[in-house]
Amino acid sequence: MAVLITGGNVHDSVVLEQILAQVRVARPGGGHPRTTPDVLIGDKAYSARRIRVYLRRRRIHTVIPQPRDQQANRARKGSRGGRPPTFDTQLYKQRNVVERCFAKLKQFRAIATRFDKLASRYRSGVLLASLVLWLRHHELSDRP
Predict the structure, then answer these.
(1) For residue 139, is it within any domain?
(2) Could you tell me if 116 and 129 are in contact, meaning their C-beta atoms sit under 8 angstroms apart?
(3) Domain that residue 116 falls in
(4) Which residues touch 73 (CB under 8 Å, ≥6 apart)?
(5) pTM of the model
(6) Domains identified in the chain, total number
């Protein structure tokens, strides 16, 4: 899990590179964790050319819908507009897991209202709340 605390008016697509730098994917057989996920599933805000180029360079498969204005611009350019990016609708359905996680995190009052003045304390609270949610999930999944 990667957590990066930013100002309230900063969209997470702006700090995507910093977030991905923190990601570590455990290997099933042990060894050093991978630093590149297989897939990044994002909403339309992640459809910027800068983000798509960065992810393509890192060989990360993207599942990001294209906004209508980008589709119209590509169609207006004709053959110079290039191919539309691939989009896996079945894989995109898994994005709701992230949205549900945010909703569950915001059930913790301190996370939803951000009482902490220091970003380090708020980040610690987010990590603790995430741990509680993870433990609850595994406790429920262990029952017969």
Answers:
(1) yes
(2) no
(3) 106-144
(4) 81
(5) 0.75
(6) 1
